[in-house]
Design brief:
Blueprint: H1 2-22, H2 32-44, H3 48-61, H4 66-79, H5 82-94, H6 99-113, H7 116-120, H8 131-147, H9 151-162, H10 169-181, H11 185-198, H12 203-215, H13 219-232, H14 237-249, H15 253-266, H16 271-283, H17 287-299, H18 305-317, H19 321-331, H20 342-351, H21 355-364, H22 389-398, H23 406-418, H24 423-434, H25 439-451, H26 455-468, H27 474-485, H28 489-502, H29 507-519, H30 523-536, H31 541-553, H32 559-572, H33 577-589, H34 593-600, H35 611-623, H36 627-640, H37 645-657, H38 661-672, H39 678-690, H40 694-702, H41 706-709, H42 712-724, H43 728-741, H44 745-757, H45 764-774, H46 779-789, H47 794-807, H48 812-824, H49 828-841, H50 846-858, H51 862-873, H52 880-892, H53 896-904, H54 911-924
């Protein structure tokens, strides 16, 4: 409505004026000039839609006139439509608009659209252009040359621009580029600062100053320059993003908020904007809102470590410790054992009361000096994937300058330590001194001292804590563990009694006592304590877990009874996920695979599902030989956690078993690109050897320590490499070493290959026989034996194949091969039974169809045979022998014309196929 009203107020007077001036000729059609005038009035009224319509009407009224396009191009520049501006200005130039008028505007359009090649070809000194215009156009031309890597041409142009008789800021900008090209950043910055004083609001000065300041690390100057630039050029989204990022990194989230909100309104699913909004809301203490934005960012593909760390922090501030722990557990498997970020997981486990698990994590961390104090009690951040130090530092910057509060010091200290910044230790210890009442911080420090065997420091800190908080039982639990480690059993028990007196009936204390008793091998006393816990808390999963472990390893408890107790308790509390997973572990340990799958069936596999579920289900599927199910499971796992080493190893095992060696190699490369790992690197060498790439495989092996080279698995890779390099004599010893250590199918086949390629073929059959005698269930080697017997002992081959079918009745290859052997010997009934079963398993397999079809032909069942052939030859490429058997059947059935067409349409690829096809053509005149 506003548009229509505004249009009437402006257009009616113009129309009346036109009628008056035209007299009796009428007023139904405007001239080009009238359309242009109307367009300018709309533009002055900020009605861009109407202005553009009138500009286009002017063009329609006189398509060959350059001025309307020139004016429209200039207007597009004003409104930020730089592609449109470039198009219209070029057309105006083509139609005859003065180049001296067009070029200054066109150069700006080129600069904005990134058309460097076009801009580099612009003449900046055309007749009619002022020195000021030449300076601006020349600057853009020179800038384009520099961006195209034509530095010599750019420097030559700067020399020309220096001679211009003008004080234009663009001349100064061009001269500044001389320093930029010559890598004199300090001189360029100095010049740009002076130019800013000359032209404080010039967009190109501000943009160049911001970019150069950012490149040289002067973020304060960059932020200041981009701030002024964005204020004058609010439609430049790219620069606005740069400014927002600088504000966020500097902790000025309130300043960034309006711009982020504005951009989010236009693109509510943008992952980076949602991340920034999450940071802003988190800094403002609006944690629920922050989590909503962060989740939106992650759903839309923003999975960088920084946002996951922030997600963990926000969850922690919401006191959702379970969610914080889940975030941390998500990325921990991807980290090498010596990465300090593992300490973040230790702190999260402590928040969940899982002190022992936290200690185990800390034991994996190589702590230098007192860096163990870097347990992350106040973090709530998720740790980095693959030791990404850059993102860790970015998160430290995002946390802002160091606060004096204990909470901020602890948070900052944790992040600093995660990137090996020793200042983090100072901040964390300072936090502990400032907030002695913080159980998490005190626990973090003391546990760190204990895991690094700094027992005196741990004891001193615990005593100081106990003195300051005489009613707190927690420091006495630490003192008890310290006393046990120092061999003071009586002192340890005394500390436990103190803890009980302060907090009677607490199972946490009882669990500590039980574990300490176990460490002293006082198993009966520990079992008694654990049973007391379960009487008070039947659903205590930790107690049941420890008790089952004790029952399995000793005779002090009945393992079957303990297991049944877990199953019974699960019936009462079926929603207890930790208890369900414990039950699954027990069933797995007892080889009850069906029970494991039944127990895991109700668990929803999501990003929040514990890793134990994924590993337990994957191992069970593998043990059940459910290759398809296991592959789908590990694929789903890797989609959620692509850097989870356990998931990668499981998938590599499956790919190796399925002989999908290239896929295995691809997976190792993807993993190693983000996380160095010796074990996966060895597997890469294995897959390189299996894909016949001996040189890179050997390079990996040669780089390993001597003790690793001696491993049987590594010796098997060396054997394969030697065979591929034509050094089979060297391969035999390595192959036998690998086989003796692990006499599986793969190593047995390796020995066979080494014997055959090293001139020791007579040793193959005796080796196969000895292997099958020791491992009669090895189907793969049994099939190899049968294949080797076909040419020399057909009855022996039949016997071996029959034995395989007793173990694996639906082995497709064996069914087909044995059927063919019976067919060759005229035992058609036996052959028929096996061949039909094979085709039933794989109805589109051309080889099995051919076997069955040939048997049917011998029984004069031509129509059924023909139907079988046509079910495969018309849908897919088949071997020459199969196709020619089909053609022969057509001829035998009197279908000569059909056979002729089939022969014309088929190209035979093998020499035998080509010769047989020619014989058929000659014999039947095809």
């Amino acid at each position: 409505m506003n548009y229509n009203k505004t249009g009437k107020r402006i257009i009616v007077p113009l129309a009346i004026a036109a009628c008056l001036s035209a007299g009796l000729t009428g007023c139904g059609k405007k001239s080009t000039e009238e359309h242009l005038e109307a367009a300018k009035q709309f533009a002055n009224a900020n009605n861009s839609d109407a202005a553009i319509i009138e500009f286009k009407n002017a063009i329609k009224s006189n398509p060959k006139a350059p001025e309307p396009r020139f004016e429209l191009g200039k207007y597009y520049l004003q409104t930020g439509d730089f592609d449109g501006a470039e198009k219209e200005l070029n057309r105006a130039l083509d139609l005859g608009q003065s180049a001296s008028e067009v070029i200054p505007y066109l150069s700006v359009a080129y600069q904005k659209t990134g058309a460097e090649n076009a801009l580099a070809g612009v003449d900046f000194q055309m007749e009619g252009m002022t020195a000021v215009e030449s300076a601006e156009v020349g600057f853009y031309k020179m800038q384009a040359m520099a961006q195209l890597g034509k530095n010599e041409d750019a420097l030559a142009l700067i020399d020309q621009l220096e001679t211009l008789d003008t004080g234009s800021v663009y001349k100064g900008l061009a001269l500044t580029y001389r320093d930029i090209i010559n890598e004199n950043a300090e001189g360029a910055l100095s010049s740009l600062k002076a130019l800013r004083e000359q032209a404080p609001q010039n967009k190109d000065v501000l943009q160049q100053l911001g970019k150069l300041a950012l490149a040289t690390g002067d973020k304060a100057l960059a932020m200041d320059a981009f701030g002024d630039y964005v204020e004058g050029n609010p439609t430049d989204v790219t620069s606005k993003f740069a400014y927002i990022t600088l504000l966020i990194e500097a902790g000025k989230t309130e300043d960034a908020d309006p711009m982020v909100t504005e951009l989010l309104n236009n693109n509510p699913q943008h992952p980076l904007l949602n991340q920034y909004k999450g940071i802003i809301e988190a800094n403002a203490g609006n944690y629920e809102k922050a989590m909503s934005f962060l989740e939106t960012a992650m759903r839309n593909g923003n999975s960088n470590p920084a946002i996951r760390l922030l997600g963990g922090y926000v969850a922690y501030q919401m006191q959702d410790f379970a969610a914080a722990n889940e975030y941390l557990s998500e990325v921990a498997p991807a980290l090498p054992a010596d990465h300090p970020a593992l300490r973040m997981l230790a702190d999260s486990l402590l928040q969940m009361g899982q002190g022992e698990d936290a200690s185990q994590i800390l034991n994996r961390v190589e702590v230098d000096g007192e860096a163990g104090a870097s347990l992350f009690s106040k973090a709530g951040y998720q740790l980095l994937r693959q030791g990404n130090v850059v993102d860790a530092k970015a998160m430290i910057e995002k946390s802002g300058t160091m606060s004096e509060t204990a909470e901020d010091l602890a948070r900052l200290g944790v992040l600093q330590l995660s990137v090996n910044d020793i200042d983090g230790l100072v901040n964390l210890e300072a936090a502990a001194k400032m907030a002695p009442e913080s159980v998490v911080t005190q626990r973090t420090l003391i546990t760190a001292y204990m895991t690094t065997n700094k027992l005196d420091k741990a004891k001193a800190a615990s005593l100081e804590w106990a003195e300051k908080e005489p009613d707190n039982h927690t420091p006495h639990l630490f003192l008890a563990e310290i006393a046990f480690k120092q061999g003071d059993k009586e002192g340890a028990l005394a500390e436990i009694e103190k803890a009980k007196a302060l907090n009677p009936g607490t199972t946490e204390i009882d669990l500590v006592q039980a574990r300490l008793l176990l460490s002293e091998s006082d198993v009966p006393a520990a079992v008694a304590v654990l049973n007391d816990i379960l009487k008070k808390e039947p659903g205590n999963v930790q107690a049941r877990d420890v008790l089952y472990t004790v029952a399995v390893q000793t005779n002090e408890a009945d393992a079957a009874a303990v297991a049944q107790g877990v199953y019974d308790q699960l019936q009462k509390t079926p929603d207890d996920l930790n208890l369900r997973l414990l039950a699954g572990r027990i069933a797995f340990a007892n080889n009850e695979d069906d029970r494991v799958m039944s127990l895991l069936a109700p668990v929803q596999a999501t990003v929040k599902t514990p890793k134990l579920f994924w590993n337990l289900k994957g191992q069970t599927l593998i043990r059940q030989n459910d290759v398809k199910g296991a592959a789908a499971h590990y694929d789903a796992w890797l989609k959620l956690y692509p850097q989870d080493k356990t998931a990668v190893l499981g998938m590599l095992l499956l790919l190796d078993a399925q002989q999908q060696y290239q896929q295995g190699l691809n997976l190792t490369n993807a993993f190693l690109a983000k996380q160095p790992d010796s074990q996966v690197k060895l597997l890469k060498a294995h897959f390189l050897a299996m894909t016949r790439q001996p040189k890179p495989a050997k390079a990996i092996l040669d780089d390993m320590p001597e003790n690793v080279k001696a491993l049987p698995f590594v010796r098997s890779i060396y054997a394969r490499v030697a065979i591929l390099e034509g050094k089979s004599a060297d391969a035999v010893k390595d192959a036998m070493t690998a086989y003796d250590a692990n006499p599986n199918s793969q190593n047995a086949l390796l020995v066979v290959a080494a014997y055959e390629t090293s001139g020791q073929a007579p040793k193959v059959n005796p080796f196969i026989d000895s292997h099958l005698e020791a491992h009669p269930a090895d189907i793969r080697i049994a099939m190899l034996k049968a294949e080797r017997l076909i040419g020399s002992d057909k009855e022996g081959a039949k016997s071996v194949y029959a034995g395989i079918l007793e173990q694996m009745p639906e082995n497709f290859v064996v069914l087909n091969n044995l059927a063919y052997l019976y067919y060759e010997d005229g035992e058609l009934n036996k052959a028929m039974e096996l061949a039909r079963k094979a085709v039933g398993l794989q109805p589109k397999n051309a080889d099995s169809v051919d076997t069955l079809a040939q048997i049917l032909i011998q029984q004069d069942k031509y129509e059924e045979s023909l139907s079988l052939y046509e079910s495969v030859v018309n849908d897919q490429p088949v071997a020459d022998i199969v196709y020619l058997n089909y053609v022969q059947l057509l001829l035998d059935m009197g279908k000569k014309e059909v056979a002729r067409r089939k022969m014309r349409n088929q190209e035979f690829t093998t020499t035998d196929g080509q010769k047989r096809a020619e014989r058929i053509r000659v014999r039947y005149s095809l």
